[in-house]
Each structure stands twice: as C-alpha cells, then as structure tokens.
Specification:
The complex is a heterotetramer, with two copies of chain A and two copies of chain B. By secondary structure, chain A is α/β, with parallel strands linked by helices. Helix content of chain A is 36%, strand content 20%. In chain A, strand 23 (547-552), helix 19 (558-566) and strand 24 form a beta-alpha-beta unit. The longest helix of chain A has 19 residues, at 182-200. By secondary structure, chain B is an alpha/beta fold. The N and C termini of chain B lie far apart (50 Å). The chains are: A alpha/beta, B alpha/beta. The complex binds thiamine diphosphate (2 copies), iron/sulfur cluster (SF4) (2 copies) and magnesium ion (2 copies). One magnesium ion is lined by residues 46, 88-90, 117, 119-121, 128 of chain D.
Chain lengths: 598, 290, 598, 290
C-alpha cells in the first residue's frame, strides 16, 4: 500500500500557521457534520463518532438531513458531543466530513472559524480554505475491496485529528461490526488503520481538537419515538394500529417488538382511516390504545378523532410533525399541525393536546396521556416533531419511579352487579360517565357518534343536545388540574419570557444560556399542555413579563395565535419567533431577535 | 339485575328487508349459543346500520364505511367477544370498499353482514355500487361482492342470503357465527334486503334467487368451481344464494388472525396492565431496549 | 257521508268568546306548523299552503324538522307567509296542524296567544285549550280511500279558517296533483271539499285570520342548495363530484340535471376522498370544479383540500353544515365547522372561506368563489348551513346582470408559444403563477403536493421552501381587495354592533327590527368573507362600536374566536350569542341578550 | 420553443425494477403514437410514484393512494388527454384499495400501472398487501390483484408484466394505451417490479413467471377461464403474466365512461364557459329551474 498524496489547504490550529504543528484546541462541545450520497453508508461515521464519545462520558445529539428517497441524493448528519446535556443542533460545526460536494456546500455556512473540511478526494476536489482531501474510497479500494469502507477510514482519520484513544477507537469498530461476522470486522479494522495512517502522515493534522471526558456514563442513547413506544408499554398501552409514515414509523416498529410479550397487539393497517377506527374499536372494547402518524395521515384521521370525541372513546394519537402541508417534505422538521389539531374536525368536542419537550418527557407524557384519555374518555393528541422523534440524544435511563396507571371509573362485573341502572353516557358532575367493557355479564351499552341520550340511543331532542354538549365540552374545564404542567426555566425575576414546546426546548435552553452570558435575563415557559390553552399558568406568566417570545416552527405563529385568542388581554406583549425552512432552530436564531428586542 | 340499555323500536319503513335480517340475527345468535353479553353488534351508517339499536346486546355505531375497522379492533382487543358487523351496500362497497377487501385478507374471526338493497336508503335512494344500470341514472356496472370475495385466496366463509328466505338465512348465520367462534376466520354474508321505499326488488329477487347448493358440481371448498357456478348462474339471469365458500377443513396452521396474534386469547382489553404485575418485565424492557 | 262530530275547545277570535263568531284577525305575517309521522305526507300541507300564499303575492319561508330516517318518527314543517321578505322562522305560530301528538307538544311553546291547534282526532285526542279535532284520516277514509288524503282535507279546513279564496284554493290542488293523473287529482279535490265542509260546520271556526295580499308576484321559491347549483353553472362550473350526504345532496342532484347540457360532468364518487381528489384532477386539467358535502365528508376531505392548497389547484368546496361532531344530527342545523375550516389540515396553506347570507347571495357568492379559486389558484370554501341549504324561501329571480367569469392568468397555446420559459410555480409579485392546461402543445408542467421548486420538481432546499411558503401564504394578503365585502344594515350611528353570517341573516334582520321598535339602534355586519378574517372592514366596524354581539350556531363561539385572535385589541367589546340545540335562531333569542345588555 | 419542465434524474436505487417500467412507458407511449403534450402521468406516493418526474411530459403527483381519483377527474375533464396513472402496491392496494376497485367499475379509459414490489419501498421496507407471509413479520395472506380484477364483471383490459421482461411489457402497454385511446375503458397492468434494496425478488420472479398466452385454453375474452388458468398456475407455484383479459370485441354499447358522459368529447376543461356564449341557455335555465 502506498501512502496517499493528501491534498491539503491550511488548517489553522491555535498557533495559526499553515502546516505548523498546532496545540489541540480544548473543547467542551463539538460538532461534526458528515455528508455524502444517501444509502452509501456515510452516516455510519456519525454513528461511530457517537459511540466513541459516549464511551468518554459525553452527551450526544445527532440530527439528520436526509431526502425522501432510499439511495442516492445528498444526505448528512451532524453529531454533537458535549460535556453538558444537549438537545439542539450546535450552531457551528468544527469538522465537516464531505463524501460529496454538497456536504461541503451545505455545511460551510455553519463551519466554525477554526473548523476544517475533510473530504473524499477520490470523488471530487475542493478548493476551500481549511480543507483536507483524502481519496478515502480509493484508499480502501485496494486493501479491503469495497468503497463502503471509506467511512471507517474517515473515522480513522478523524480519530487522529481529535487525538482519540487508539484502543477505544478500535473498540468502537469491534462493538459495531462484530455481529456482521469476522470478515466484516477484519476489513473494517483494516480500513480504520488506513485512515489513521493517512491522517498521521499529513503534517499538522493530528490533534486539532480535544474534548475532555465527561460524566454521562450511565445515559442511554435514544430517540423520541423509542421513548414514546416505551412509555406506551409501561403506561399500559396494549393495542396499536398504524400505517407507515415518516417520521412516525419507528413508534410502530418498536412496538412490534415490545408489545407481543404483554398480551398486546400491533397491526399495520391498510390506511390511516382503518388505523384510527381500529384503535377506536379496541378502546371501546377496553384496551389502552394508540396510533401514530404524521401530517397526511393525521388529516385522514380527522373524522375518526372527532368520532372518538363524541362517542367518548379514549384514544391516544401521536402526531410526529413534519414539513407540511400535503406530502410536503417527509423527512424534514416543522411544528405546523397545532392549529389544525386544536380545531380538528367538523363540530365541537373536547380534545387534549400534550407535547413533551425532551426524550425523557416523551416517556413521561405518553404515560400521562394514556391516563388522561382513559380517565376523561376523550381523544388525546401527543404532539411531537421530527427533530424530537428522530434525532438521537443521550438521556437519563427511563425508570418506573413516576409511572402511575389510572384507569378512571372503570367498573368491574362486581361493581356493575350492585348498580340499579347503567347508562354509558350518564350525566355526571365532571362529564365523565363510568365505563363498563362489553362482555361484562348482565349489562349492555350502546356507543355512537350520532347525538344520543344517556343510554346511547340516537336523540335529536334539543334539550338533551344542549346537555350532552355541555357534558362533553365541560370536561375541558374539569380536566385542567390534571393536565401536564409547564416546566419553567431561567431567572424568576426576568421580564422577558420565552414560550416554546417540543424540540424547541433544546435551542431555547441554549439561547437562554447565551442571553444570560450577555446579561439578558429570560424566563422559559416550556409548554407541555397546548390545548386546552393552559390559561391558569400562562396568564400569570404573561402578566409577570414585559414581553414574551413564542418560539415555534411554522409560518403563521400557531401557538402564539392560540394564546392570543385565549388571553387577548396580553396580546400586546406577544412576539413571534418562527422558522419554517424545514430545519430546526439554532440557538442564535432565538438569541438575535430577543437581543435585538424585536 | 342492573337495568341497562334496551332495544328501541326500529326506524325502518314497514316492509323493509332489514326486518328479516334483524329477526334472523336474533335467532342465529341464540341458536349458536352466544351469551348475549358477549355479543357486540357494530352498525354502519345507513338505514341498515341502525340494527344494533334494535337488539338487546352491546352495540357500537361506527362511522360511515368504518364498521369493519372498528370490528377488527374490537375482536383483536378482546377475542372472547362475538363480533357481528352489519351495514349497507353503500357503507360497505362504496366508502368502505378498502376495509371490505382487507377484511378478507386480515381474516379476523368476525361476521360481516351487508344488507344489500342496491341503493342508498337513508340518503333517499341514490345509486349504490350494486345498483343496476339505469337505476337513478346509474351508468356504472354493478359490483358483485360474492365474485370478488371468491377471488381472494384466504380461507374465509362466504355466503349470500335473501331476506325473503329467512330459513336459509338463519342456517347460514348460525354456521357463520360458529365458524367465527371456532376462530376459523372471517365470515362474510351478503343479504339481499330490499328497500321497499326506493328500490323494491322483493319480487324480482324472489323470482331469481337460486340456492347454489342445488347446482351440479357444488363444492364450496373449491373457489374456482364456485366462481364458475356463480358466473354461470348470473349469465342465466339468476342470482346465486347460499354458502359460496367454506374451507374443506379449517386449516389449523391458518386460523383467524386473533389466534395467530393471541394464542392465549387474553388480549389487550383483558390484559392486566397494573404496574406491579408487570414491574419485573417492564424493568427488563427498559434496561435492554434503549 | 256523515258530518263528523268535531271535537273543539274554544278558539279565541278577536271577540274572544267561545264559539262566538269572530272577526278575522288581520295579519301581515303568519306561521303554520304542520307535524306528523315522517313519510306519511303530512308535510304536503305546508307545500299546499305555500303555494296558495305565493299566489296571493306573499313571501314564504318554510323550515323543516325531520329525523334521519325515511318513514315514521315525528317530522314537522313550519310555513311562514309574510307581506315582507322573510328568511327566518317566525318566533310564534298562529296555527299548529297536528297529525301526531308530538306535533302539538313540540309546537305548543311557540303557539301565539291567540293561536289554534288543528289535530287529527282519528289518531289521538288533545285536551288543550284552543284546539279543534277533526278525524281527518277517517273522514277521507270512506269517500276517497286512503288516509294519505287527510293532508288535503286538512288543507281544506285551514282554507276555511283563513278565509281563502275557494277558486284559488282549488287551483293549488290542481297545480300540485295534475301530473299525478286524473284519478289522484279527483280524489284530492274530493278530500279538499271534505275538509272545507267539516270546518264550515264548526261554528266560529271560519275566518279566524286573514292575510292581505302582497306584492311578491315575481319571486321564485327556492332553497340555498338550488341557488348554489345554479350559480355554479352560470359561473362556469363544469365538473362536480360528490357523495350523498344530508343536507348537501340536493346540490349534486340539481347539477345532475343541469350540467350535462353544458359539456359538464357530475359524478357520484365512491366516497368523499375520491370526490375531492376527482375535482382536483379535473381542475388541474382545466375545468371549474366543485364538490359539496357536510361535516363527516368534510373531515374526510381534509387531506385533499390541503393538497389543493400546496399544489395550487383551484377547487371549490361547499360545506353544508349540520349538527356535529361525528355523525351528529344529520338533518339538523348548526354552524360549527368554521374553526375547523379556518385551520383545516396539517401544515399551512392559503384558503378562503366565503359565506352567503341569503339564497340570492348563494347564487352570487358561488360565482365569486369560482372566480377567486381560479384567479388565485387556491381552495375556496363555500360555507353554508342546513337552514340556508334546505329551507324554502321566496327570492328575487336569479339573473345574469352581475355575473362575471374571470379565469385569471390562463394562457392560451398562442400566448404560451411566445414565452421563453414556462414554470408552473413561477414566483410572481402576488404569488399567482400563470396556468397552462395540460394538453397545450409545446409545454409541460409538473404539479405536486410535495414541496417543490418553480418547475414543480420536488425540493427540500430551505431557501426555496421559505420562498414557496411566502408565495403561497402571500396570496392571502394580495387577495384581500377581491374578497366578498360584508353587507351592512341598520343605523349608521349605532353603537351596538351585531356580526353574523349564513342563515343567521334572517333572524338578525328581524331582531334589528324589533330592537329598533324598542328604541335600540344596532348595526349589523353580515360577514360574507370569513377567512382570511376581514380585518380591513371589521377593524373600523369594531372601532365604531361600544359593544358587538357575534351571533352564531355553535358552542365555542368560533367566529368570535377568529375575530378575537385577528383583532385582539377589540376583545373587550366582543360578546357572543350562541345556539347549539340543532334549531335555528328565533329573533327574540337575539333581541333578549342585546336588550339585556349581556 | 418555450422551455418548460425537463425530466430530472431518477431517485431510484441502482437496479430497481422501476427503471424497467420507466423505459417501457416511454417506448410504449411513442409506439402508440401519443403526442407527448397530450399525455398526463399521474404519480402515486412511494418510490414508484416518482416516475412522472423522470419523463418529459405533464405530470401530477397525487396524494398517497388517491392517484386513480385524480386520474379519473383528469380524463373526465378532458377526454382528449391520454392519462397514465402509476404507483406502488402500497399506494394502490392498501390505502388506495377502494379507488382501485371502483376504477374497474367506473371503466374510465385510462391506464393504471401498479409497480408491485411486495413492499413499501419509500418508507423502508414494511410489508405491503402483496407481501408474502413471513416477509417483515407479515402474517396476512398476500393479495392477488389479477384474480380480483377478473372477478369484476366489466369489460376492462387486465394484464400483468414483469420488469425483467421488457419486451412483453412494452407490447402490453402499447395495447393498453391503444385500448384507452379508442375509448374502450379502463386498463390495468400490474408490473412485477422488484425492490432490490428491501425485497429483491428478481431471481424468484424470473424463475416463476409464465406467459398465460402459452397455456392451453388461453382465452382472454373469457374471465372465468382466465380465473381458472391463473388459479391453476399459482397452485403450481408459478406466476401468470401476460394479458389476462380483454373484451372479445369491445362492446360499443358500453364504451369508456368518458364517452357515455361526453359523446362529443369536449368535456369540462375545454368547454367554452364564457358568459356570452352561454347567455341564452343560462337564461332559459334560470327561468325554468326555480
Ligand atoms: C362520511 C359520510 N359520508 C356520507 C354520509 C351520509 N350517508 C349516510 S347513510 C349513507 C348511505 C346509506 O346507504 P347504505 O350504506 O347502502 O345503507 P342503507 O341506508 O341503504 O341501508 C350516506 C351516504 C355519512 N354519514 N358520512
Ligand atoms: C396518507 C399517507 N400515509 C402514509 C404516507 C407515507 N408513505 C409514503 S410512500 C408509502 C408507501 C410506499 O409503498 P408503495 O406504494 O408500495 O411504493 P414503493 O415505494 O414500494 O414504490 C407510504 C406509506 C403518506 N405519504 N401519506
Ligand atoms: S328507506 Fe328503504 S332501506 Fe331505508 S328503512 Fe325504508 S325501506 Fe328500508
Ligand atoms: S427502495 Fe426499493 S423500490 Fe425504492 S428505489 Fe430502492 S429498490 Fe426501488
Ligand atoms: Mg343500501
Ligand atoms: Mg411497493
């Protein structure tokens, strides 16, 4: 094997001089963007780096930018490793690993001033400052056969640039490739060495950056969709029907693995209409149920969700938001379904919309949502977004300490036997009628989406109609004390408020840090109940502030609109920070308007 | 005995074919030995779909066209229930066509009765997928559910009955319900149920129905033969009724879907979801999953 | 034939004494409620009365209260005849014609103090004051055979009570029954005489009320659904796909009759998903299109309407609102889809919601809506309600004087040939790209609901995404000058405002009259564009008022909410008058809260 | 010549069966003599559904499962267009099943190509309605679209092709397009188009396809014979391809629906809707209607 003639342009170290040996720059937070053609495995590099940094006790956050196609086309991932918990894309990137030209082009604007671009010079040439080309594909072409090993070679080169511990660098390869068989492992180890060697031979390339070890040893690495699936199981969820759709499919796939061990059923339905009606049937029969979908499927479920609202069948619908409307951008990020959900369906019925801010919260809120649905016998929406659903994050291991399963008034056969009368839609002070599953001896029920009387028979009596509307809609008032409360962060005396939900949690927290360092005190209201609009906590929050920024991923400012309509007296304080280009917030995009006082 | 919901008086026009179905279902359920509280009737939207209100049992009124999806959810959630879905030809073959086709494929052990009157009764007599050419300006060919059911290679139970022939109907329904209760899979029965108000086909049907069991070569285990017999009967201007398909001997390797998924028949609705009963398993799951 | 022993309780005339001959009371406005078992033809009576009063130049308004079943069950209709234009149910009723007991029970609360109940004593007995029983069914049983003729007999009795002109009374029967053949006509004429004779034999029954002739000689009698269908045809609509649903079906049925003569196509689709996608296909191909539906179907169209928004395909969707949610009450009245429509679908796209207030306006706005859809290439919703759709009303004959067909920038083959470049989604100042129908030689287009570039190819480029969102959403700003303007009524200097849309028009106008007579000046803003919220006209309207009542048929106050969110500065002025029992407003229900200052 | 949209490079994985369909459609359209600007390709959602972006013609990308509804709207709006809808098996037989079944019934003269790969390609390989038992945990019986198509008694054109056999595919597509252009009705072609990434069935299919035209008794005018031939072929472990049904002689009394509705072939999109041209007729309508 011959040593490659690496093509380099100066990579500045702290010492600055081209080619001069540089002292490693010490970082507590680092980002590497890896890009190439979709399906050729380039994203493996981010996985390998993530594994390494996890071994070193760092927090990881990986975001992906992929097209809605299986192979080809540009795809990239950005891996962030930090000594502190992170749940946002780092605004700047230290290293770009470019297997195609687009990677360099897309990534450049975020490259940090002392960042570098490592690219595969067997595929293209780059004439950018701070770039180093290795013909990775050619390099591994000889010794190990297939260009797919270029990824491992690149990992090797990076390990040199970042002064990785060689043993643990190898351990990562072993961990990842052992199950692919000895041959695959051996070839990858070879590719690793090829990459390492090539990098070591370029003067001044080694040890550009160094990240001190962290303490996140016990964290798990997960995604929101997995946390939701786990929350569903331990929250007692037993029936799931869905239809594949990005970025929701993983929830179904995880549940296909988990649920059968618990008398549970997961069905891929023929479409979303079937999915939502299947869970309605299953919930009517007495199971805790869920479906998960994204925009197009959600729109198709509109009629079904309204049916659950009127018929008072407890269902949980996870909406993994992506770029809309219509087919939109299936793989990309947005939060633009809230307005639709808050007003979903013809006619009026109660629904609750909850939104977790972190993967830990995905687990917790899913359980809360199951309890809310069944206790109040109404549809609950679990509002997620692509970044929260699919970006990998280190998280506290999930545990059962906060898990409560509360099924509300569900009567057993013994309890039923003691009743004089059982009416499925009995009027009660809080609007919730006791539930008896079909199959219980001695008692029948009729359930319907037509307007009905207490017995469940069709009725168009105007007096009954008004009472039934008040019964159902009244739940939205009585339920308030049980709804997930907001999480508040930052200075309690701040006069600048920030409101956000879902994956904006991470960028907002990061923006708060930056603002704080700049002397701007803020208070962050992380909304976890979005509908009914949590006036009880929002009103005092808004009252206490001079100005409040609502941060969200959509064009019209949907959450701000809901708040404005619910609390119009505070309208003059509300500002909107919106992003709708398919990508998630970087903290400076939140810092700038707040600092600018816009 | 707790007092709960009682049947209401039917909302059908006097003479409606649906009365025949109502009577037959009541008899068949009793004859098949279904404890009434274990029965769930899923109604569609349409005149026909009101049936669940007129029987003393559990009922759920689904959305227009979605009764099969709800029925499947019910059965897979509690396989101990005897689930009967019943609705109209518009409900089942127009808006519900997708679920109809997939019901054969899924093969969940439930009974689906389509009360075919070749019209949309409740919305006042528009053409339905089974309407003949010329009915209310219809220019599309009528859909034949039996032929299509026979085209789906799954061991279901397939039959057609006629509201004017209650004896056969009861027999067929009893067999269908027993088929379901033995977890052999999906049972489909199309009943010819005239709409006396908008499309009174009683006379026409009475003259044209032919019991397939009387035809030479009748062999309900063989789809292809039955397909031929039905096509020939129709070509002769007749309408085949009777059992069109039942597996020769139910294949134990291919039972109703509920049994494949839930061999112990407990299922989601009856599972113990208490935290304590599951703690050990949950902890293991959380440890190993993420 | 023997004279029946009519059972009567005193019917007060102006002279008051039981049985005493009374002077006819002169009325300018009269209501008769007729009720019986659905499907037995009792509603024919209201038809016959309507025909008679039209001959006398009166304005007619007939509302129905029917169950969602074909035969049996109670059904009633209320026929109003007035010398002034009317478009509301009269708050009190002079005469109840009861063929079943329920009719009397339901109608009683609205019976005017000097009103009477005429009932069929062959079916039941009534012990109410002011009631007269005739055994109508038995009466006609002998002479003419079937109890169905009881209706005509009742009409005969009424004709006596109201001093009808005997010749014209007969003429109505001839008009109505001639096409049923000579036998039917003869029997009905006999039944008429039986009824007349019976009534004449009861002392004091004749000539209770009298309504002077009016001047509405040239008015037509129609329903909103027919007006929409006619507007669609003359507005150039040529493709309609729908699925039967109450109270929308008539639009499809009328168009089945009208469109074939104009190269038009009407298809009953297999479901609403097909219907909306069929019209999208037809509009893409270059036709003016519409579908009509009600709540459940509308919910199913959610995905399709969003697709039209993103793909920029001009479609018109008529939503004939009924009681929701879910299957709700198919035959009854509500306005509860607005919130859903304003936020319809996942993601964000422009849509326009227009709402006619009268049947004349149904005709006009349908034409405007077709122009808006095609000029701006977006989905337009025509928001109707059961009362407007189905209640029969006298109206000015429709004419072509205001009809304009404006197709926007639709390029001909000649125009296209002169272009350098054609891009289906070309960026333009107002967001509207020129349209070329497929089939035009020399040019191609790509149309999609995925995010796309100007050429119509899929794109996830963030810069393009932002521009495309701004292109589409910007239409909602540029379109404003072309949107239907509100109609304003009442005192220009009033400080009390009323806002309403759709069929609340009639009751509000009537309430204004009553308030005016009570010295309360009001100004009525009849909204004809509901979304985008017409801030340009609402802001000055709200500014000029001290207090504004938003009158609507729903629980949550949906239009009030939209206004509040769009114009939060006026929130303190907004009051809500809501009704959601399935029935339409009676004017006192609007008068009372305004007079009470609530 | 005005510059308008040009095809983009395909987004398919190298080796994907869909390339075969793309090539065959291009050739067939040319061979059938369709002026390209009169062609409209309606794409479904799925890998397959991108096809309209890769051909120089008019394209519309429908919603998932709704391509047939849009295609019907297009053809009935402008019967002069040659409309080809193409999408996946998930798109067509799962979410689109209702429209699929009704397309046969409607019998509008358009071509529908299902690119069947027995999987959901674009969402990364879940089981589809045609997946075999065992594929990705599938426990439902696979759907056979040809058998079902044969069960619908309407004079459509029905065929199956294989991406590995481009010659037959082109022949079949040319015939189908000509059938449409002669307004004979709906044409359905299922193409076996392997997904090399998630479900590479090339080898399996190559070994198992059998041209039905070579079978004894082949008679595509007779549904019932074809039904039997297909069932027998499948029972022998083979997969029938070729033309499964074409009317013996197209029945002039039952042409494509567009011709029944629009005998003069002008249609909604090309109608003159100007007020002046219609004034007399409109005035009459308004006078007589209400
Ligand atoms: C989504 C939706 N679309 C339309 C309707 C209106 N609708 C009620 S019943 C019915 C059809 C009834 O026909 P069928 O199913 O044959 O029942 P039948 O009345 O003939 O027994 C329709 C279209 C509805 N309820 N929901
Ligand atoms: C309403 C809706 N549900 C789900 C999806 C997600 N989705 C996109 S493509 C696809 C299935 C693709 O399978 P198939 O139609 O067989 O096409 P293939 O990719 O295999 O060619 C699904 C479920 C969607 N776009 N819209
Ligand atoms: S309308 Fe027809 S289907 Fe409906 S109840 Fe009457 S007879 Fe039966
Ligand atoms: S994933 Fe399969 S179907 Fe999709 S492009 Fe790749 S090979 Fe073709
Ligand atoms: Mg029917
Ligand atoms: Mg596929």
């Amino acid at each position: 094997m011959t040593t490659p003639a690496a093509k380099t342009t100066p990579v500045p170290g702290e010492s600055g001089g081209p080619g001069a040996p540089a002292r490693p720059k010490e970082l507590t937070d680092l980002a590497v963007m890896i890009g190439g053609q979709g399906g050729d495995g380039t994203l493996t590099v981010s996985d390998l780096l993530g594994r390494y940094f996890r071994k070193r006790g760092l927090y990881i956050y990986t975001s992906r930018n992929v097209l809605s196609r299986i192979r080809g086309g540009h795809a990239d991932a950005t891996m962030r490793a930090s000594r502190d918990p992170v749940a946002a894309v780092k605004p700047d990137v230290e290293l770009i690993v470019a297997f195609d030209k687009e990677a360099a082009e897309i990534g450049r604007s975020e490259l940090s001033p002392d960042g570098a671009i490592l690219y595969d010079s067997s595929v293209f040439q780059l004439d950018l400052p701070n770039s180093v080309g290795f013909p990775f594909a050619t390099l591994v072409g000889g010794a190990v056969g297939q260009p797919i090993f270029k990824n491992t070679a690149a990992y090797g080169a990076i390990s040199v640039m970042m002064g990785f511990d060689p043993t643990q660098t190898r351990a990562v390869i072993e961990e990842r490739f052992t199950r692919r068989g000895p041959e695959a492992l051996e070839k990858n180890l070879k590719a690793l060495e090829i990459g390492r060697k090539a990098a070591l031979e370029v003067p001044g390339l080694a040890d550009r950056w160094h990240v001190a070890d962290g303490e996140a040893q016990h964290q798990i690495l997960t995604i929101g969709n997995q946390a939701v699936a786990l929350g569903f199981v331990v929250g007692g969820g037993r029936f799931f029907a869905g239809y594949p759709i990005t970025p929701a499919t993983e929830i179904m796939e995880y549940l296909m693995r988990y649920l059968p061990a618990f008398h549970g059923v997961v069905r891929q339905a023929e479409d979303e209409l079937a999915a939502v009606n299947m869970i309605i049937g299953a919930a009517y029969a007495g199971a805790r149920v869920m479906t998960s979908t994204s925009g197009p499927g959600l729109s198709l479920m509109t009629e079904g969700i309204g049916h659950a609202g009127t018929a008072e069948v407890p269902i949980l619908v996870a909406d993994c938001q992506r770029v809309g409307p219509s087919t939109g951008e299936p793989t990309r990020h947005e939060q633009s379904d809230l307005a639709h959900l808050a007003h979903l369906g013809h006619g009026e019925y109660p629904r609750v919309i909850v939104a977790p801010g972190t993967v830990e919260d995905c687990f917790e809120i899913t359980i809360e949502a199951l309890n809310l649905a069944e206790r109040w016998r109404l549809p609950v929406i679990l509002l997620l977004d692509q970044a929260l659903c699919q970006n990998t994050t280190t998280a506290e291991p999930f545990n059962l300490s906060k898990v409560v399963v509360d099924r509300g008034t569900r009567l057993t056969a013994e309890q039923v036997a003691k009743l004089d009368v059982y009416q499925h839609y009995q009027f009660t002070p809080n609007g919730v009628s006791p539930y008896v599953p079909p199959g219980t001896p001695g008692v029948f029920s009729q359930v319907t989406g037509n307007e009905h009387n207490e017995m469940g028979h069709v009725s168009v009596n105007p007096v009954n109609r008004v009472k039934m509307m008040e019964k159902r809609m009244g739940k939205l008032i009585h339920i308030v004390p049980e709804l997930p409360v907001p999480h508040l962060f930052g200075d309690e005396r701040a006069k600048i408020g920030i409101i956000g939900y879902g994956s904006t949690f991470g960028p907002i927290r990061e923006a708060q840090g930056a603002l704080d360092r700049a002397g701007v005190k803020t208070r962050f209201y992380n909304a976890r109940t979005l509908f009914p609009v949590p006036k009880e906590s929002l009103d005092p929050f808004l009252s206490a502030m001079d100005v409040v920024y609502v941060v969200e991923h959509n064009y019209t400012g949907q959450f701000a609109d809901l708040i404005r309509s619910a609390l119009p007296q505070h309208h003059a304080k509300l500002r909107s920070i919106r992003k709708y280009d398919g990508d998630s917030f970087r903290s400076p995009e939140i810092v700038a308007p707040i600092q600018g006082g816009q | 005995m707790v007092q709960s919901v009682k049947p209401v008086a039917s909302t059908w026009c006097p003479g409606c074919g649906d009365f025949g179905v109502l009577a037959a279902v009541k008899k068949a359920v009793a004859e098949a030995g279904v404890p009434v509280h274990e029965e769930v009737l899923v109604g569609g939207i349409g005149c026909s779909g009101g049936i669940h209100n007129f029987i003393e049992t559990n009922g759920i009124h689904a959305l227009h066209g979605r009764l099969l999806a709800q029925a499947v959810g019910i059965k897979l959630s509690n396989p101990g229930l005897t689930v009967i879905a019943a609705g109209g030809d518009g409900d089942g073959y127009a808006i519900g066509m997708g679920h109809f086709m997939h019901a054969f494929k899924k093969n969940v052990s439930l009974l689906y009765i389509v009360m075919n009157n070749e019209t949309y009764g409740l919305t006042k007599g528009q053409a339905s997928p089974t309407s003949r050419i010329g009915y209310e300006g219809n220019i599309e060919h009528p859909f034949d559910a039996i032929l299509t059911a026979l085209s789906i290679p799954v061991p279901n139970f397939i039959a057609r009955t006629f509201s004017g022939d209650p004896k056969t109907m009861i027999q067929v329904l009893v067999e269908a319900i027993k088929f379901n209760r033995a977890n052999h899979g999906f049972a489909f029965v199309e009943d010819l149920s005239p709409c006396v108000t908008y499309n009174d086909t009683f006379k026409d049907w009475r003259a044209r129905v032919v019991d397939v069991a009387t035809l030479p070569g009748y062999n309900p285990a063989d789809r292809q033969t039955m397909f031929r017999l039905c096509v020939e009967t129709m070509q002769a201007g007749k309408i085949p009724i009777g059992v069109m398909h039942r597996p020769a001997a139910p294949d134990p390797s291919s039972p109703g879907l509920e049994l494949k998924l839930l061999p112990d028949k407990i299922g989601p609705a009856r599972a113990d979801i208490g935290l304590e009963s599951n703690r050990v398993a949950y902890e293991k799951l959380l440890r190993t999953a993420a």
